[in-house]
Write a structure and sequence with these properties.
By secondary structure, the chain is mainly α. The protein is elongated and about 55 Å long. It has one domain. It is 77% helix and 0% strand.
């Protein structure tokens, strides 16, 4: 308990930083994938159906959603998925 009192705030701070980094990485990966799709579409666009990449991203409107689940709940869900996959 003493360890948690002394380092608990640092752990929460580090987890918040990690959460922001993961969210940023997912957003970057999503943007990269959208860019690749948009490039394929761009090749087929004409002046009358052109859409900018930024407009395309807004149109797709995919957002990474935050979960209110604890880390333990997420690990439990992962274990259940893993067990279900191994049964196949």
């Amino acid at each position: 308990m003493l360890l948690h009192r002394n380092y608990g705030n640092y752990l929460n701070h580090d987890l918040n930083i990690l959460k922001r980094l993961i969210k940023k990485a997912f957003k970057k990966e999503r943007d990269d994938k959208l860019w690749q799709v948009w490039l394929v579409l761009f090749d087929k666009m004409r002046e009358d159906n052109y859409i900018s990449f930024e407009d395309y991203k807004r149109q797709i409107d995919i957002e990474v959603t935050e979960s209110n689940k604890t880390i333990e709940e997420l690990f439990e869900m992962a274990e259940q998925i893993k067990k279900a996959d191994l049964r196949r």
